Automatic annotation (TrEMBL):
It comes from the Bacteria. It comes from Pelagicoccus albus. SUPFAM superfamilies: Restriction endonuclease-like. One of its GO terms (molecular function) is endonuclease activity. It holds the Pfam family Vsr. Belongs to the Vsr family. NCBIfam families: vsr. Keywords: DNA damage, DNA repair, Endonuclease, Hydrolase, Nuclease. The keyword Transcription regulation does not apply. This is DNA mismatch endonuclease Vsr. One of its GO terms (biological process) is mismatch repair.
Length: 171
């Protein structure tokens, strides 16, 4: 099946797909901060490490990738569908993405970095994600997991206020 929209329109649509500061990334950052971890998102380590991790905890030599199930092909996930038009293009693109992820994670692990991958669909159960992060990230003994992680307590920025100057969002 061929693409139903023009090449220019498809290009415009794809240019609107965010690559950084997505809602899942902001949610994980908020969760990490609430758990007491400190990290970088735009630091020099983020840009120089293989795969450009979404979150880097330099003091703990740990990186976190927040993967979208569709783009990174989460196995057996209902979100990881394949478009019905231009199937060959999408298959090739997805294979390149998965191979690039695998290579970057392998290089990071060989360099002594702890690599954690959080999938978009896992964020529906924040308690499990929080427990996973606490068990995987090396931590100081005084850092304790809160008794419960509730959605309304997270301070993830909304898409409405994210990136706007403070004066616009205070009203």
């Amino acid at each position: 099946m061929t693409d139903r929209i023009s090449k220019e329109r498809r290009s415009w649509v794809m240019s609107r797909v965010r690559g950084k500061h997505t809602k899942p990334e902001r949610l994980v950052r908020s969760l990490l901060h609430r758990l007491g971890y400190r990290f970088t998102v735009n630091g020099p380590k983020n840009k120089n490490l293989p795969g450009k991790p979404d979150i880097v905890l330099p003091a703990r030599k740990c990186v976190i990738f927040v993967h979208g199930c569709f783009w990174h092909r989460h196995q057996n996930c209902r979100i990881a569908t394949t478009p019905k038009s231009n199937v060959a293009y999408w298959q090739e693109k997805f294979e390149r993405n998965v191979e690039r992820d695998r290579t970057a994670q392998s290089v990071l692990a060989e360099s002594g970095w702890r690599v954690i991958v959080i999938w978009e669909c896992e964020l529906k159960q924040l308690d499990k994600v929080a427990a996973h992060l606490v068990s995987e990230i090396p931590r100081h003994s005084e850092l304790e997991l809160p008794e419960s992680i509730e959605d309304e307590l997270l301070v993830a920025e909304t898409s409405r206020s994210y990136g706007k100057p403070k004066s616009e969002t205070e009203s």
